[in-house]
Amino acid sequence: MVGRSNSEFTSRNGRFDLGKMGQDINRLTGNLCFGISVVILVVFIFIVTRYQPNAPPTKITSFLASTSDATFKSDGSVIKTGEDFITNVNRSIATLSFINITDIAEEQHYPTPIECDVDKPMTCNTPEIFHLLMRATIEAFNDTHFYRFGKPITSGVDDTSCDIAWKYRPKDAKRDSLYKDYRRFVIKHNTDCSYTVVSIGEYHSGVNARKKKKKAIANNNDGRFESNWNPNSDVTGQMNMPVVGDVVNDSLPIMDSEVNFSSGKYLVYTDGGERCKSMDHYIWSFLCALGEAQHLNRTLVVDLSICLSSMYSLSNQDEEGKDFRFYFDFEHLKESTPIIDQAQFWNDWEMWYKRNNLNLYFVEDFRVTPMKLESVPDTLIMRKFGTVEPDNYWYRVCEGETESVIQRPWHLLWKSKRLIEIVSGIASKMNWDFDAVHIIRGEKAKNTRLWPNLETDTSPTALLNILSDKIDGGRNLFISTDEEDTSFFDPLKDKYTVHFIDDFKDLWEVKSDWYVETRELNNGIPVEFDGYMKAEVKTEVFLRAKKQLETFNDLTKDCKDGINTCTSSP
Ligand SMILES: *[C@@H]1O[C@H](CO)[C@@H](O)[C@H](O)[C@H]1NC(C)=O
Ligand SMILES: *[C@@H]1O[C@H](CO)[C@@H](O)[C@H](O)[C@H]1NC(C)=O
Ligand SMILES: *[C@@H]1O[C@H](CO)[C@@H](O)[C@H](O)[C@H]1NC(C)=O
Ligand SMILES: *[C@@H]1O[C@H](CO)[C@@H](O)[C@H](O)[C@H]1NC(C)=O
Ligand SMILES: *[C@@H]1O[C@H](CO)[C@@H](O)[C@H](O)[C@H]1NC(C)=O
Ligand SMILES: *[C@@H]1O[C@H](CO)[C@@H](O)[C@H](O)[C@H]1NC(C)=O
């Protein structure tokens, strides 16, 4: 295939003069790319040469089966994205000093006034209250490192409570993220004019302190302290690491000027066989497109509407119209690489392409490598994919000689921060002090031919036996499982405080932050917490546990992929 002559490529992949096709395109752009491709197919009479791959597309198979860092595991139990591979964070975190309570205590020289009016409404934003709240927080959460406190803000509900936010990391964190919490403190003004903290509210109760107001965070009343405690003015920016809990702004980027739009260069992928496939397949393909766009220094035009495969949907049907932002961190993506939503793109294109003489370069064969497109001057490169699988998979662009040139930009794709916030909510409710066991039963347990011992090895009796060696009695135990009837594990409750993901469903049900925010994103229509979201959350909670036991290896000697498959990775 590599030997194919150039002339054949040019006959199928050429430059378009939009003067000639203007009308067609004009009519079509409204119809988005599906329509466009149809007309282009009509305009271009091409010979259908069926490409028979010499070898089956092993890449996706090996990626799915691999346990290497850059890939996923095949059973869907661990769905990794960019933030899972952050490697320089230990170093960065080491350079960030966390706030030591002794620093605050030393500075505690607030002369108590002789007289005060204890009935006067309290002012939250004073150095005295600020230090009081910081001390109370550090003492209450002694398993936590604190990196920054925001300014206390009146709760707005009464005269005796203040909200304050902070960024923290659990002391023995398994994952490199900072988290944000904000809570409501009830404060008593004593008759001797001093203050005491009466109570600290639940996780995320201090909603008034949540907002990312420039003035609300840092450099407040005690500038010297702030700079001592936190020499880095922007923790996130410096460390390129997720901060979970900030208000998410994943609004679509807006290209607001004709000049800027017209001077840009774009890449778009249309059609193809990825629709409604597994999310792994989607990610693998999406990152290929993104890698090509980066290689070509072009803005990627993305379709943010994705199809959720029946394997994850609650209806067991493929479901169209899911927003990319339900699953992935679009804010991080748009801040890290040039990207534009396709609806906006086609809108702008229609308005401006003619006046600015913008051209489209059409590529219809995935074997045209990104390297061959480097010198294409046209504003838009459009790759169109056909109907025949597997030739119509986007990721095929990144195969062959391209593989050594284009690395998938994993660091750009993070999981939705709204989902990770649910994860941090669950972990917080267990005080970040829990162990976890992943118990796979389901179809595999029924199939005694391939997994002869799985059923018995994951029975409550066997579990109690194995766990008693590894996890102390009385611990919080998070069970991530595909067993539908969780009462099956009731015997474990005698020994452990057992938690399942559904015990925390108030974090995504009606009235939760997640519910309200995703509904807003979805034009007012409530979003279902689907199987993929749940899998992501379960997996991420598991990964934050102090002790983590996996089914294969830890609970049973059966092999993950069936009998006698343990040779490489059990
Ligand atoms: C960070 O350090 C801990 C122990 O100090 C280690 O277990 C962990 O693997 C390190 N993480 C990374 C990403 O280097
Ligand atoms: C915090 O202060 C205590 C007492 O001065 C000291 O022992 C400890 O090392 C300090 N911790 C950090 C991280 O600076
Ligand atoms: C943390 O607080 C708990 C209870 O509040 C206490 O039992 C524990 O000893 C404290 N740990 C440290 C290291 O101070
Ligand atoms: C969100 O970010 C965009 C830039 O990407 C900005 O224009 C917009 O004002 C922000 N919205 C809010 C509510 O902060
Ligand atoms: C156009 O782009 C430049 C550079 O990216 C930016 O500084 C400028 O604000 C943009 N103009 C408009 C109107 O968006
Ligand atoms: C993309 O930009 C980089 C840096 O500006 C440059 O080195 C590279 O040659 C460019 N690649 C293409 C295909 O234009």
From TrEMBL:
Keywords carried by this UniProt record: Membrane, Transmembrane, Transmembrane helix
Task: State the GO CC annotations.
Answer: Golgi apparatus
Describe the location of the DUF7075 domain by residue ranges. 260-550
One of the Pfam families matching this protein, by short name: DUF7074
Stored InterPro entries: DUF7074, DUF7075
Q: Where is the DUF7074 domain?
A: 119-205
Transmembrane residue ranges? 28-48
Q: What is this protein called?
A: O-fucosyltransferase family protein
